[in-house]
Design brief:
- By secondary structure, the chain is α+β, with helices and mostly antiparallel strands.
- It contains 4 helices and 6 strands; from the N terminus they run H-E-H-H-E-E-E-E-E-H.
- The strands form 2 sheets. A 4-stranded mixed beta sheet has the order 1-2-5-6. The chain has a two-stranded antiparallel ribbon with strand order 3-4.
- Helix 2 packs antiparallel against helix 3.
- The longest helix has 89 residues, at 21-109.
- It starts with 20 loop residues before the first helix and ends with a helix.
Amino acid sequence: MSSPYRVHCPPEAEAPEVEHPYARVLRAQRIKTRLLAAGTLTAAAVALVAIASTRSANAQARRAEVRARVTEVERERVATAKQVIEDARRRAHEAQARFEHGLEEARARGDGALATCPPRGTLAGRKPTLSVVEDAAHGLPSRIVDDVLADARRAEIHVDAGRFEDAAAYGRALSSPNRFGRELVVVARETKAPQVRSMTSYVPGEVTGRAYLWDFEEGRVLCAADVHATSSQEIGFSYLGAPDAKAESGRTSRLMATLSDDLTRAVERAATEALFASR
C-alpha cells in the first residue's frame, strides 16, 4: 500500500527565457552585417573572376596577335630568302650556259677569234678560279657556278631550319656582283696522276691540254694557250695518324692528297705563264 504522504508528480517546467528587446536588435544587426559582408565578398569574388577572365582573354588575344605578327615576319623572311636563292640559281644556270657555249665556240674557232690576254697586273685582286676538265665530251662544268649552286643549297637548308641569320649571310654572298669573276679552265688531253711508290718516293704526275681564260662579266673567252704541267720533284708533307690505325695508312693518304694539291698548283702556274707569255 502506498504511503499517503508521497504523491508522484512531474517536475514543473522551467519558465522560458525571455530575450531582452535590445539583445534582439543587436542580434539582428549582427546577422544583417554578416549577410552584407558575405554579399560584398561574393560580389568582390565575382568581380575578381570577371577581371581575371578579361585579363586572361586579353592576354591570349595579345599573344595570338604577337604570334601572328611573328609568323607574318617569318613568312616574309622565308619568302625573301627563297627568292634570293632562286635568283642565284637562275643566274648560275644562265652563267653556266654562256660559259659552256663560249668555250665550245672558242675551241671550234681557234685562236684567231681570241683577243690577247689582259695585262697581268689587272688580275691583282681578281685571281681566276682554276678548274681542270678531263673529259670535255661530257660537258664543260664551271667551278664557280658549282660553288654558287652549292652555297644556294646550304642557304636553303638554313632557311628550312629557321636559321635566318646564316641564311642572310649566304644570301648576301649569293647576291654579290663580284661572285662571278674569271675562271681559268684547263681542258686536259692527257692526264697522268702521280703514283706513290713508298713512304719516301713517288712518280710525278703530268697534265697536258689547253688553257682558256673565261670572263663571266664579258661573257667570253679572253685568251687561250697550250699547257703542260708536271708535279714537283720533291715535296714536303705532314700527317697525323689515328691512335688505333697503322702509321702507313695515315702517311699514304696524306702523301697522295699532297701530291694532288701539288699537281693542281703546277697546272695553275703553267696555265698562267702560258697565257700571259702568249701576248
